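Late entry, evening session. Most of the bench is empty. Finally got around to the prediction I had been postponing all week. Sequence below, unchanged from the version circulated by S.P.
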Amino acid sequence: MYKDFDTISQYYDLMYVKSDNYKKDVNKIIDIFNTYNSSDSNKLLDIACGTGGHASFLKNTFDVTGIDLSDAMLKIAKTKFSDISFVKADMFDFNLPLNFDIIVNLYGSIGYAKDYNQLLKGLQLINKHLKKGGIFILTPWSTKETFKSGLFTDTKTQGNINYSRMESINLLNDGKINIDMHHLIGKNNNINYYHNTMSISLFSETEYVKAIKKAGLKILKRLDETEFCMGAFICTKY
């Protein structure tokens, strides 16, 4: 996410992880799994797991493996949860020795796909690693039909750390979403400023449906943003 992420990663949980929301997400995931799963175990793969925000609740029900491309995030996750397997891997190019009963790709990280072909490749890898009858939950980073630009702000205090965040989210002419990120972190009477931009691919509902089906997965249900954070495709392998 950040060019200097090794510096700012120590504040990631403060800036982005909202435990109450994550717990609600996981309760919904458990309900979905219990409703639709027909595989034989409870092995879960958390794709783009970050610092383990969801994994901290998932591990109470599932045998969790998390993958992420960020060394800094994985270092934090491994420090927090020694009982969870965290692996450095690219969500569009990974090969694990296990198959899973449930795979989750949450909070729009699939938007890091540079184009439709890479989106499809990532979903094909999901198929490869998902057991027959297992469940795949995908939350898109919005869609072309639902995207809205905007300004996001947040301020928090935790112990002796004060933090302010402002992000401008806009659609560019090439169809990509540009996120202009500004963070102020105050600690020990010093203020540090961090800035970065991030590019996210915006796919249409039709493109998601087409890619999911072409990858060999079946859509069981489409949840909107009132039913699941950022909305979700509930899929299975048949």
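Two things to note before I forget:
The chain is about 25% helix and 35% strand.
The mean pLDDT is 93.
Will write this up properly tomorrow.
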